Amino acid sequence: DESFAERLAWLRQMLEWQTEMKDPHEFMEALKIDLFEEEVFVFTPKGDVRSLKRGATPLDFAYAIHTEVGNRCVGAKVNGNIVPLAHALDMGDRVEILTNKNARPSRDWLNIVKTSSARSKIRSYLAKTTRESDHATGRDELAKVLRRQGLGIASKMIEKALHELAHELNFVSG
Q: Cβ(73)–Cβ(97) under 8 Å?
């Protein structure tokens, strides 16, 4: 039954969002929004149909295709014409996403996307890269301070002291 298959696909999407979203309130808000919004149906270059929230943009479409397509998005063509990433998609549009392997999501994209799924994926990427950047900056700063004291960050004494400090402060290794 096609209706059952659609409801099952919707339920799978909800479960995927639930695992992606850390905040249960954000998930409930996304669920409410997606339950009551109108949809537009757009086509991939291969002719596959994608259902999106009315007002969705090429960025929303890119993230609906695959997270990495969204993360690598640099532009879009709608019906063969290059459009801004903030362009609102209409029913029946044929959307092609232009990507670059060196492209990365921008915080500004949070103001462009209309679907909670795309917003969640962008936030997740930004949080991950911020964490990695903060980790590298912290390690560099610690190494700099230790060098001024004539110590190396890789020494056994420093490693043991850092583990004890982390344990004392209840930090979890990750």
A: yes
Instruction: Tell me the CA distances in angstroms from 69 to 33, 62, 98, 155, 156, one per residue in order.
Output: 24, 6, 9, 42, 43
Q: Is 119 exposed, middle or buried (0-12, 13-18, 19+ CB in 10 A)?
A: buried
The tokens for 44 are: 């991939």
pLDDT digits (tens, 9 = 90+) for 99-149: 999 999 999 999 999 999 999 999 999 988 888 778 888 888 888 888 887
Q: Running DSSP on this structure, what letter comes out for residue 84? A: -
The answer to whether the CB of 104 falls within 8 A of the CB of 73 is: no
pTM: 0.61
Question: What residue has token string 């009551």?
Answer: 36
Q: Which residues have C-beta within 8 Å of that of residue 40, sequence separation ≥ 6?
A: 51, 52, 53, 54, 56, 89, 90, 91, 93
